[in-house]
Amino acid sequence: MTTATRLATYGPLQFPDRLGLSVPQFERAQRLGILPGPDTTGGRWSAAAFDAAAARIDDITAAVGTMPDVGATRAEDYLAERFGITVNPGTAAELARRGHLPVVGEHKGYPLYCGLTLERFTGRQKVTRASAAGQLHTRDAAAAVLGIRLADFDHLVRAGLLTHADTTRSYWKDIVLLYRQGDLDRLARSRRIDWGAVRATLRGHRSPLAGLPDAKKSLS
């Protein structure tokens, strides 16, 4: 904790700085209710509030951890290094989908994942399962996973049996749709589709999936 002249009130940068907290730690402490919000005019904290926080700084620091809230790539890199395993892109979103990793904000339209949860995460098997189910594939790769032609794959999307889970940008800045492994696995188990017939259809022949109803029409 910084030893400096005691102030009458403290602003949102002075308060954490003099406590020895980073701004992300300070914001997390407020979000968790560990530190109070401003108690004086102008969005500032009183000297009494600062003194009370300073008296329990060790407990506060232990409670908020040190890792900031991060985006998907940093979260996945952290988990890969921590557990010494391959962590596929899409794992963070999958962990969040399963209720294991809270989304606590966003940055430029992308979710931020709770750094405190990541720092304390012990579920190696949860990460492994999420990495497998959350792995993302382009349209071509997803069709290959299912063992079908692109024309067949497009019929599945048209019929609403498969929807993309995320997007990315190509080298040319085009939007690329990404499909989740877990959704492909679920669809591959569907008895609604004669996968043998679909996979046996030769190139240039009409897809057995062509007769599936159009999802947009069925919703109208």
Features:
single chain, 220 residues, mainly alpha, 3 domains, three-stranded antiparallel sheet, two-stranded antiparallel sheet, 47% helix, 11% strand, elongated
Fold and architecture overview:
The chain is mainly alpha-helical and 220 residues long. The chain folds into 3 domains: 55 residues, no CATH class; 63 residues; 84 residues, no CATH class. 47% of the residues lie in helices and 11% in strands. It has 13 helices and 7 strands. A 3-stranded antiparallel β-sheet has the order 5-7-6. Strands 1-2 form a two-stranded antiparallel ribbon. It has a two-stranded antiparallel ribbon with strand order 3-4. Strand 3 and strand 4 form a beta hairpin. Helix 2 crosses helix 4 and helix 6 crosses helix 8. The N and C termini lie far apart (63 Å). The model has no long low-confidence stretch (mean pLDDT 94).
Question: What topology emerges from the helices and strands here?
Answer:
Layout: E1 9-10, H1 14-19, H2 23-31, E2 45-46, H3 47-55, H4 57-64, H5 72-83, H6 91-97, E3 103-107, E4 110-113, H7 115-119, H8 124-134, E5 136-137, H9 139-146, H10 150-158, E6 166-169, E7 175-180, H11 181-188, H12 195-200, H13 215-219
Antiparallel strand pairs: 1-2, 3-4, 5-7, 6-7
